[in-house]
Each structure stands twice: as structure tokens, then as C-alpha cells.
Amino acid sequence: MNAISNIWNHPKTSAAGLLIAIVAIAGALSQQGISLGNAGSGSVVSLVAALATALLGLLAKDPDSVQQTSRQASGQTGGAAAKLGVWLLIALLIPLPWMEGCTAANAAQDIVNWTPALQSAVAIVDSTAAVLAPADASIFTTATTDFDADSNLLVNQAKAYLANPSAGILAEMQTQIVTLNQQVNAALLQASHITNPTSQQHAMAAIEDVATVATAILSLVESISSKAAIAQMAAQSAVKISAVTPYFNRPRAAAMVAAHYGEPVEQAEAQIARAEQAETTAGL
Questions:
Q1: Within the chain, how many helices (H) and strands (E) appear?
Q2: 26, burial (CB in 10 Å: exposed 0-12, middle 13-18, buried 19+)
Q3: Would you call 197 exposed, middle or buried from its count of C-beta atoms within 10 A (0-12, 13-18, 19+)?
Q4: Ramachandran region, residue 40 (left: φ > 0; alpha: ψ -120 to 50; beta: rest)
Q5: Largest CA distance in the chain
Q6: Would you place residue 77 in the very low, low, confident or very high pLDDT band (cuts 50, 70, 90)?
Q7: 231: nearest Cα among 180, 273, 174
Q8: Which of 25, 98, 178, 257 could be joined to 30 by an S-S link, Cβ 3.0–4.6 Å?
Q9: How much is the pLDDT for 274?
Q10: Hey, which residues does 38 pair with through a beta bridge?
Q11: Burial of 40 (0-12, 13-18, 19+ CB in 10 A)
């Protein structure tokens, strides 16, 4: 009875929760390849998710006047509006890999947009050994020796795929991002064993910047890859992302992502969390 009473007394809250559930379920169905039929150039699942998100947006922007009046009397209007805004943000942050049309092209452009940041992060890695203690510099250099070659190859493949989005180039990019990701993950584990606190701090920070970009690109490549390709990528991933996430500097990573997309840090944090969750679920 309490549940029914809460639904009756808080219809907007209940409606928002229902809409979020619809978007989440649609995302899960899409990731499993369930479309429930076609709707124009898209699918029924994508249409339902889009409508639910749009309705949630209207719900967040159009508070009920009666409820607004009563809540103003109790000083709760701001909190209710903030909650609706958070719900809308959550719905918009739910990954939409099922959306068709320009998704692959957008992902390809996004990957290329990340390449300057990747090259910049690798350049910092190249200069970091000079500020480490000699013994630590040797460990660091050995751990990161392949960063330049692997990142340059990935950059060239990303540009080639954007210019000619063929299955062959995508397959090469899938292999290369896994290769780079594995190099970065292994380097993080090795750098974590550096005992000099100052050296470890410099080493980890440099590698983490590369890891942030590599994780973003891996997530983008995953979003345009088939289930079979993702399974193959996972099989090639000996050092899983779950093994290195304890070493991530999350505020630093969120700041990088926020600066890249020109968005609030909180939104970047949510994107990073969802990307890591998706990659862990995929076995990467």
C-alpha cells in the first residue's frame, strides 16, 4: 500500500523513474541485438528510448504548477528540480550504441579527435624518464618503450578509417587499440612497483594520461564493433582493465575528458565510469 500511495502522491517522481527504466531496458536490449523490428531507418527499441528520453526532458523542464506552489511553501522546489535534472542527465548518459545512421561516422571522427591528446600524452611519457631516479628511469623506459610506435600506428589507422570506413581498416584498428591498451595496462602495473615516491608519482601520472585516452578510444572502437569482434578483442586482452583501475587517478582523468568534450567534470566522471563498466563487461 505504501508503494501505491507513493506513486499517487508523487506522480512526477514515479513517471521519471519509469522513463529512466525504459531507457535503461532499451539500452540492454540493443546491446543484446534485440531491435523488436524496424521503425523507419532505425529500430523500435531506439524509437522507444528516444521518446522516453524526450518525455523525461519535458518532465524536467515543465514542473507541475500545483506541486511547485506547495513545494515552494516548504522550500523543496529547488531540490525537486535538481533531482529531475539529475534524472535527465542519467538518461542522456546511458550509452546509445543502438542508434543508427551517423553513429559510426561520429565515432570515427571522435577517435581522430582524440589522437592529438594521445600523441601529446605519449610525448610527455618520452620526457618523463629524465626526471626519475636512474634505477626507476630504467624500469619506466622499458615499460613504455613501445608507446610511440603503437600510438603512431593507431593514429594513422584512425585517420584512414575516417577517410574510408572499411571493415578491413576497422579490424586493424581493433587489433591496434587492444595492443596499445595492453602496453599501457602492463606499464601501469610495472610503474606501481617503483618504490621511490617521487619517481612513482611522475611515472604513474604520465602513464595514466595515456591510459585515459587509450580507454576512451577503446570504448569508441568497441561501440562500432560487432559482438564477434569484441569477443576477439577480449581474448587478446591478457591484462584486463579491472586489474589497473585501482591505479587510475580519477579526478585527473575526468578533467582530461571534461576538457576534451567541453563538459562538466561530473558528466565526464559518469562517462568514464560507464566506459569502464562496458569494457569490463565485455572482458576487455
A1: 14, 2
A2: buried
A3: exposed
A4: left
A5: 70
A6: very low
A7: 174
A8: 98
A9: 86
A10: 43
A11: exposed
Q: Which of the residue ranges 2-16, 60-74, 76-90 would you say has the lowest mean pLDDT?
A: 60-74
Q: How far apart are CA 174 and CA 167, in angstroms?
A: 10
Bridge partners for 103 per DSSP:
none
Backbone angles phi, psi at 43, to 5 degrees: -125, 165
In whole numbers, what is the pLDDT of the chain averaged over residues?
Answer: 79
Per the structure block, which three cell numbers stand in for 184? 599501457
| pLDDT score recorded for residue 26 | 58
Whether the CB-CB separation of 190 and 127 falls below 8 Å is answered with no
The dihedrals phi and psi of 55, each to the nearest 5 degrees, come to -65, -35
Which helix (H) or strand (E) element contains residue 105? Answer: helix 103-128
Q: Is the pLDDT of residue 278 over 80?
A: yes
Matching residue, cell 610506435 = 149
- Give the separation between CA 221 and CA 177, rounded to whole angstroms: 8
Residues in the chain: 284
274: region left, alpha or beta (phi > 0 left; psi from -120 to 50 alpha): alpha
d(CA 166, CA 171): 9
Per-residue pLDDT of 142-171, as tens digits, reads 999 999 999 999 999 999 999 999 999 999
State the cell numbers at 28.
Answer: 540492454
Strand partners, 39: 42
Sequence letter at residue 200? Q
Rounded to whole angstroms, the Cα distance separating 216 from 31 reads 19
User: Using an 8 Å Cβ cutoff, are 196 and 131 in contact?
Assistant: no
Mean pLDDT of the 242-254 span:
92
Residue 110 neighbours by CB under 8 Å, 6+ apart: 220
Whether 66 shows a pLDDT value over 50: the answer reads no
